[in-house]
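Anyone opening a protein record will find just a pair of labelled lines. A complete record is shown below as an example.
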Amino acid sequence: MTMDPKALAGRFPGDFVFGVATAAFQIEGATKTDGRKPSIWDAFSNMPGRVFGRHNGDLACDHYNRLEEDLDLIQSLGVEAYRFSIAWPRIIPEGTGPVNEKGLDFYDRLVDGLKARGIKAFATLYHWDLPLMLAGDGGWTARQTAYAFQRYAKTVIARLGDRLDSVATFNEPWCSVWLSHLYGIHAPGERNMDAALHALHFTNLAHGLGVAAIRSERPTLPVGLVLNAHSIHAGSDDAADQAAAARAFDFHNGVFFGPVFKGEYPASFLSALGHRMPAIEPGDMETISQKLDWWGLNYYTPMRVSNDPAEGAEFPATVPAPPVADVKTDIGWEVFAPALGDLIRKLNADYALPDCYITENGACYNMGIEDGAVDDQPRLDYIADHLGITADLIGEGYPMRGYFAWSLMDNFEWAEGYRMRFGIVHVDYETQQRTVKKSGHWYAALAGQFPKGNHRTT
């Protein structure tokens, strides 16, 4: 794979969008400023043993107070688009009740700042920061939270929708459902299948209600959903392992793709766990399966599984299988770019999917500044390899429309706190100094091959 950015850029059509991505809780800080109230992540971060070093989002990258500087940084990278999330606790601080105008004012400034710099605004409405007050009413395990989200979505789009280029309802519901309610790794830290199954359906419902709310306000605004679909590989050719991989696909992917793109949950999943699901009320599946304009894929690493031989193992009854590739990032994730292509091909074979954006892709490498620079060649290689796979997919006819590097800058990496770095820009958390890494300079050179508004064809 060539590392030459110009040669790689030549493999993409002129209207392909190159961008960078962040999330509100990970960068904004200012958690008690201008009327914002706590989210479940504020509470989770401050509980001993939940987040590395008990790190929290109180300061993060201080983006809330450094907005203009950070928008200039994005512009300096030459990218065409910025994917960011909006913090529900800034907009409707208690989840329901009064709207906080100062919160909306901040995102007004953000979107207007992007427009002034010729950068497209790709907003995400929910990136895991549920208002803490809603947790007291059951959070995502309660049906009424889906309707609270509907109102929040309508409020945001009524204010910002005229200047947004695209909007996603949710980011990675797999994380806010399974990782948060079954595996206990993310807020609110539940380890309960019944809670997770309720969160699953009510998150899917909230997505559908959100789509309707967005379209009621701005019928022409492209709306989508961002999914961290898993590229699942069986640990062997053994029939039991192959069957385990199929179950894992239904559990990790099908419970989101099926309702949204087919209007149904996977049969294997319902057979095993349907009796523990909340009531699926008339009209729910129709609401969830409204046609989308696009979908986003967040991809980092493959999932390898084998059959769990334990008697009575809970669906999907799998155990991790060893990696195939020897290369791992600093967070311990296997690097295997071909899995990205495998995943897109499999999903498009199974579902009738709209246009796709790679909404997150990147790698955790923790090298610091030496002589004023950050040589993160492994991250550069990772991004280049995955962009090469994306170009292959375009050549095969798949509707890949854009790529957003994760992340614009080092930030709060959820349960890992600040010890893991994904940015193409280094952040010194003591001084808040931003330093563009080698990967960032390379990505800027790549993005610079596509002048904004000058859509060429190849």
